[in-house]
Amino acid sequence: MGARLERLLRRADDLLLVAEVPPRGIVGWLHAAEQELLEAGRRCEILGLVVDAEYRGQGLGRLLVDAAEGWAKARGLGLMAVRSNVARSESHPFYERLGYARVKTQHAYRKHLPGSAA
Ligand SMILES: CC(C)(COP(=O)(O)OP(=O)(O)OC[C@H]1O[C@@H](n2cnc3c(N)ncnc32)[C@H](O)[C@@H]1OP(=O)(O)O)[C@@H](O)C(=O)NCCC(=O)NCCS
Q1: Is 105 part of any domain?
Q2: Are 32 and 44 in contact (CB under 8 A)?
Q3: Which residues sit with their C-beta closer than 6 Å to ligand 1?
Q4: Nearest Cα to 80, choosing from 91, 67, 68, 94?
Q5: C-alpha angle with apex 113: 109 to 114, nearest 5 degrees?
Q6: What's the CA gap between 50 and 58, in Å, rounded?
Q7: What DSSP line would sit under 27-77, residue for residue?
Q8: Ligand 1 mean position to 46 CA, how many Å?
Q9: Which of 7, 22, 27, 48 is the Cys-Cys partner for 31 at CB 3.0 to 4.6 Å?
Q10: How far apart are CA 69 and CA 61, in angstroms?
């Protein structure tokens, strides 16, 4: 994860944010990125968001998403997107509370390629 973080921090189109509560330290993080889709144009997608279970319900998730929206706006993006696992049931009312509308349900497919690095 350290190596991934180093690479991501160097990318101008990726955003990494942390929520820090002293003296505990980092209790939440968000990863988002600007994307351009051939079919749908430019947008900001939230690719990862976690708040430590002990610190949920205190507004930290909202603060992280608000900051990502501010970053996206400053880049001239007009659309936020996020894909949320159906098993992450706590995130569904969270995103709806923040004004996100559920637009579709998808199947996710993956294929491991032999010999490739993570
Ligand atoms: C989803 C998650 C990030 C929310 O973080 P959080 O810090 O608890 O959220 P907040 O306290 O900022 O909540 C913001 C709003 O959503 C509401 N909300 C949050 N979780 C909720 C839940 N489980 N049920 C109903 N409402 C919820 C809050 O009541 C709050 O509303 P308000 O501001 O009007 O009072 C957190 O639960 C988490 O890390 N879950 C595990 C990982 C995950 O699912 N990540 C999302 C992957 S896409």
Answers
A1: no
A2: yes
A3: 49-51, 56-62, 82, 84, 88, 90-91, 93-94, 97
A4: 68
A5: 145
A6: 13
A7: EEEEEEEEEEETTTEEEEEEEEEEE-GGGTTSSHHHHHHHHHHHHHHHTT-
A8: 14
A9: 48
A10: 12
* 113 is a domain residue: no
Domain count, the chain: 1
Measured in degrees and rounded to the nearest 5, phi and psi for residue 95 equal: -65, -35
For 39, the domain range is 2-97
Atom nearest to 95 CA in ligand 1? 16
Each residue's pLDDT tens digit in the chain (118 positions)? 999 999 999 999 999 999 999 999 999 999 999 999 999 999 999 999 999 999 999 999 999 999 999 999 999 999 999 999 999 999 999 999 999 999 999 999 999 999 876 6
- Say how many Å lie between the CA of residue 97 and the centre of ligand 1: 8
